[in-house]
# Entry
Amino acid sequence: MLQVKNICCIGAGYVGGPTMAVIALKNPNIKVNVVDINSDRIAAWNTDDLPIYEPGLLDVVKQARGRNLFFNTDIETGIKEADMIFISVNTPTKTFGVGKGRAADLRFVELCARQIAQLSTTDKIVVEKSTLPVRTAQAVKTILSETGNGIKFQVLSNPEFLAEGTAIQDLMQPDRVLIGGDQTPEGLAAIEALTSVYASWVARERIIQTRLWSSELSKLTANAFLAQRISSINSISALCEVTGADVDEVAYAIGSDSRIGSKFLKSSVGFGGSCFQKDILNLVYLCEYFGLPEAAAYWEQVIILNDYQKRRFAMNIIQTLFNTVSGKKIAMLGWAFKKDTNDTRESAAIYVSDHLLNDMANVYVFDPKVPEKEMYDDLDYLGTRSKDENRKLLKVVNDPYEACKGAHAIAVITEWDEFKTYDWKRIYDGMMKPAFIFDGRNILDHKKLMEIGFKVKAIGKSY
Ligand code: UDX
Ligand code: UDX
# Structure
């Protein structure tokens, strides 16, 4: 059997970094090189101040780094030395041209494939780790075989299912590992080679082997199903607010049906993250491209509902504050797209604050992990107003009590655990009255808040 001895991973991001750290930890005999064009990022991976925040990650990195795990910018050597190469670069949604706003921009993946083809002098297995549209492997294969110098390449799809904030746990104990490849003798051998890397710590029956296209499509479908559950319960949250039903009770009641299951039924201000929206847009694009408009419209609705939920939350704040937030201080707790991560991609916070700023609110944000620069970058990227205006209207503070002092309302956007432990009486005393709190995650004890004197508004609650 093909024995993997040297792995190179191109892309030291949220996916590549943690995945390679765990592979290296569990396979001390395999040299794992993580390379990236971003030298600042690589430098940070070589310190104890890692570029991404992920519980348990530093511990894993420290055990393997310098032993068989290496982070560097020397992409050429990394590629040349490796017998297995993971492509884990980002694949943003296209912002221009054909497929704008929907299709994935594969330019980085294509660049990687061309680089691998040019530099390789020995046979290699190329593993797609980035989430990609179905049949990307075909494009990668074509580039490798047309531009390579007679070297044999096998292309595998090995989508990542880790969720941020729980990446290490998800990697250590995955529900399943999915590996797709060509159903030829060489393809099956490559699948086996990668299987043996994971089998160092994952039970073989949890390693699913499929054909290439099934693997690629499964990743998009898994994310689409997960996101669809959130949009489904969020649509019900709107109905709860007007009928007097309670969305958490409804979610619990339906989730107890083992056919439905209880996970991913937590109503919220809207899902964020780098994957859900991008993958669904991708699926929509694929359906349209292959002439399936009904299927495309079906999945697009998941995104439309999510945008509606974010807008609805912001509008509720404005309407409740007597139809204007102009000049009013609104404290925003949380900017990350979920707790236990410093990632803000597609976070509801960006869109909610944008709506509030449009109404000239003074927004004061506190997040335990997200740096100020990131928040301004996120807002500037939207392009709704000038950089100066964003900095004038939105302030970032390092202390939650400071953020809430003198505020007319508080909006809870991220479900950080520490928010539950705050001295809410002290916060109430320092606020303008009536003191409103809008819980976009339903994590706070609403009864207690009301006893203190807060006027509580929450997703899917009618009080
Ligand atoms: C990315 C994709 O967004 C996702 O679809 C896929 O499932 C996994 O890879 P993530 O790791 O979160 O997710 O992205 P990001 O944190 O942006 O990391 C990508 C890294 O690749 C960056 O550090 C970037 O500098 C690097 N990169 C990008 C290269 O090294 N070379 C390139 O040509 C392009
Ligand atoms: C997701 C998938 O879970 C993972 O398998 C895939 O590899 C990448 O995309 P991630 O985006 O990191 O992971 O986080 P996830 O936990 O799925 O949360 C996504 C968003 O949905 C977050 O904004 C989260 O707060 C929200 N969410 C999640 C809800 O609003 N309600 C829920 O019940 C669950």
